[in-house]
């Protein structure tokens, strides 16, 4: 690749490409004429993105100097879009280590610029008194700015876009609660920003002059309270005016559980977001416009950002969601498929049947499972399992789907995640609910045995128990498998047959 002073076609490294912002930034960088390399711990999660064939994918981790250094080679601009939000009590140390390794490897590789998306912090609160989440985001910015590599730190408050955690919180709270008792932070002033503006600033930051090494506050034109945001959402969405009653005694911990019960955002992520909302986060400058000029109507107003996000949701064109990245603390072990695997017990529940529909018709039902379509058996049991998971801090059943019809590796699907997909044949899901072990669910759409255009459905539930509790769990729920898994297989087969009949009559 060329290494001259030509600033077009820059070579960009994007970390966090499996996440909400990173997954949207990559196509924007490509559209701007840049060349992109993505760093991912599991490259397979990027395989099904529409832009996957246009980028280079490097396997590695931001805390591993060797793999990160290799990915940094021949890079002009390195985007730091990762953080350990909700990963446990040690997340500040993890963020600190990752930022130091990133800065050191960028300097060693001769990277021209680092671009980091952090959080907007209040000007009148010492950083040591901030919430752990905001304090860590600020510390990461300081470390990168001191790395010796020219760095752009963009500080945003609430990002509004289809699928963002902040948008989903706002959406579910407003739509589900016409009357609500709320934490006192609904009266705190905030300056939200549209995700489209954030992406524009991220792309534009790659071209900043070498002497620029500083933070920039980025926000939309509106400063409002969270109460104002809920009322504006109701207006844009065509809902009646909401009655909102703040209650001061709701602590951040209690309010995060309250958010977790009402919205799809689990408490592990809701808590740092709720803690951040205690502070007034308003931009104190708009210097970014000197380097990334705003066009007509930019930055977008809050109402416009909401309208654009809602349009994407209604058209089922959500590119990435807050749940695109793996949920912190959830095991990510792949299914042990080696026939000689000796890792201990594997319990399975297998269901098979012939289906009066083509393999294509059966596959459409399989790929459309979850979300609004449900799980084709005993809805109450699935709902109860989801609520129990939420009560113990899990993700629950309300994450739904990114797309109503299509899945890709890495997608969250209620309390599962797509681990593998072979279009037209196999869907493998890995459980992300709280369990004493690891669990998977496989669904196959295969040709029928007689070659008459019919299909064969095969379903396999797999559980790898962790200790005695795991074994006890499997045997305690196995009596219900005939109803849950057996009913699921039968109803999927019937749904495929009905869909086939509907197209041929």
TrEMBL record:
Residue ranges crossing the lipid bilayer per the database entry: none
Domain named NAD(P)-binding: residues: 16-158
Top-rank taxon: Bacteria
InterPro entries with a match to the protein in the record: ComplexI_NDUFA9_subunit (IPR051207), DUF2867 (IPR021295), NAD(P)-bd_dom (IPR016040), NAD(P)-bd_dom_sf (IPR036291)
Signal peptide start-end: none
PANTHER family per UniProt: NADH DEHYDROGENASE [UBIQUINONE] 1 ALPHA SUBCOMPLEX SUBUNIT 9, MITOCHONDRIAL, NADH-UBIQUINONE OXIDOREDUCTASE 39 KDA SUBUNIT-RELATED
Name under which the protein is recorded: SDR family oxidoreductase
Source species: Streptomyces flavovirens
